[in-house]
Amino acid sequence: MKKQLVITGLLLLFALLPAAAQRTDSMRYYRRADGRRLNIETVNRDSVGIDTLRRIDAMDSGLVTLREGGNDGSVVLEVAGFGLTLGHTPMQKMELKSPRVELNILSDMEFGFTQLTGVDYSDYAPGEKDFLDQRLGPSFHFSFSAVQLCLSLNRSRTLSLGLGFQYTLDNFRLADNGITLGNRDGRIVPVALDEPADKSKVVTSSLGLPVRLIYRPAKHFRITAVAYSDFLLGADAIYKKPKEKNSLSGFRSYQFGLGASVAYRGFGFYGRYGLTPLFKNNAGPACHTFSFGFSYTLSL
Predict the structure, then answer these.
(1) 171, 253, 281, 286: which is deepest, by most CB within 10 A?
(2) How far is 163 from 151, CA to CA, in rounded Å?
C-alpha cells in the first residue's frame, strides 16, 4: 500500500512540473511599512531567463511616481526617491541633431537700397558740387553668398560661424540726368552730356569674403552679425539713350564694412555700412556707402 502511495505521489509530481514551467504570470504581495498591501504583477523567467515587470497598482503614498521628464518627450519613473528616465538615450539625441559643419549654396541674399552718406565736396570747385546726389528709389543693392561654410560653436547648435564667397552689385542712380561721371587728372568729376539722358548711374560689382556670426535663439529665428571684406571687380559710369558705358577709376579696390540682419523662416531685414571710404584719397569726394532692405536665407 505504501509503495503504491509513493508511486502515485511521484506521478503527480512529474505531472505538475511541466505546468509550473509553463506559468508566466504571478501576483506577488508585499507589505509596506504602514501595513498596507502593494500589488505587483510580474512575469516570471521566460524561455531566455529574463524577468520583466508588467504592472504596478496606483498608490496614494507617493512611493511610486510617474511624471513627464521635459520637452523632449521623456518620462521619469521615481521609486522611493530614485528616478529612472525613460526616453531617448544621449546617443540617440546626438543622432537627431544637425551636423556640426554645413555647406550652403546660394544663401544669404540681400535686396535693398543703397546710398552714399557723409559726402564731402570740400576739395571741389563750387560748380562741381552735388554731382553725387542720388535718386534713392532706383539706387538698388543686390548681394548673395555663392558658397558658405557654417561651423557650429556650441552643442545646442544655436551659435555658429559662417565663412564663404559673396557677390555684390550696387547701382547708384544720379539725380541729374544731364551729367555722367568721368576721371580727369586722377579725380572723379561730373561730365556734362549734350542732352539729358533717360537715366545716368554708376554701377560697382565686388566679390567678398564675409564672416557671419549667427545666433538662433528659437526655431526658425535667426540674428546675424556680419563683417564684410569686399574686393572690387569693376566700376562703370552708364547713361542711356543711346546707352553708353565707360569704365571709371578712382574707387578703392578693398572695402570693409559691418552689417546685421534679423530673419524668421528665412525672411527678414538687413543693414550694412561701409567703414572704408568708397573712393581713394583725393580721387573723389569723401563718402561711405549704406545699404538697407530685405534679406532671405536658404540655410534655415
Answers:
(1) 171
(2) 9
| Segment holding 275, helix H or strand E | none
Q: Provide the grid cell at 101.
A: 559643419
Question: What is the structure's pLDDT at 262?
Answer: 97
Least confident of 30-34, 78-82, 137-141, 222-226: 30-34
Using only the alpha carbons of the chain, give its radius of gyration.
Answer: 38
DSSP for 42-90 reads: EE---TT---EEEEE---SSSSEEEEE--TT--EEEEETTEEEEES--H
Host H or E run for residue 4: helix 2-22
Contact 173, 147 (CB under 8 A): no
Cα–Cα distance, 273 to 279 (Å, whole number): 15
Question: In which residue are the cell numbers 531566455 written?
Answer: 48
* Helix/strand/coil (H/E/C) assignment for every residue in 92-117: HHHHHCCCCEEEEEEEEEEEEEEEEE
Measured distance between the N- and C-terminal CA atoms of the chain, rounded to whole angstroms:
90
Residues 6+ apart with CB under 8 A from 125: none
DSSP lists the bridge partners of residue 26 as: 42
- Among residues 257, 263, 254, 261, the alpha carbon closest in space to that of 292 is found at 261
Q: Are 273 and 258 in contact (CB under 8 A)?
A: yes
Name the DSSP letter for residue 126.
G
| Residue boundaries of the structural domains of the chain | 101-296
Q: What are phi and psi of 228, to 5 degrees?
A: -95, 135
- What confidence category does residue 283 fall into, taking pLDDT thresholds of 50, 70 and 90? very high
Cis (ω within 30 of 0) for the bond into 242? Answer: yes
Most confident by average pLDDT, 34-43, 96-105, 255-264: 255-264
Fold of 101-296: Porin (2.40.160)
Which of 147, 101, 160, 110 has the alpha carbon at shortest distance from 262? 110
C-alpha cell at 190: 561730373
Decide if 114 contacts 132 (C-beta within 8 A): no
